[in-house]
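Appendix C reproduces, verbatim, an entry submitted by the partner laboratory led by Prof. M.T., so that reviewers can inspect both the input and the predicted structure.
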Amino acid sequence: MPLTARGTAHDLAGEGRRGRIVSASVIARDVTQRKHYEERLRHLAEHDPLTDVLNRRRFEEQLLDELARAQRYGSCGAVPCLDIDNFKTVNDSAATPREMPLRRAASRNAAPARATEAAC
């Protein structure tokens, strides 16, 4: 359980006792729920609400990082793109958001194979 602690120590006996700490007090607070909310807010800020993949802003950040890494190490990478004709018509024909082909396709491809990969 993550805790934050804040404390003070006082020499209650006065200055003439070689600066020994005679007592201390600590205030501890469980911040587990706060950390959970912060992580949830970060996720909402970086992911598309429908597909749950990285949003455009986060994708661009990731892409710039990867381009810099490729240039630094002389490596290469790929950005696969999928273009489907009349996709809006197909996607809009779904009865519920969960049945949308876009959402289903994103959920199948959202799990990157390596830690250095991202699905956007």
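Confidence is low (pLDDT under 50) at residues 9-14. Additional entries are available on request from the coordinating office.
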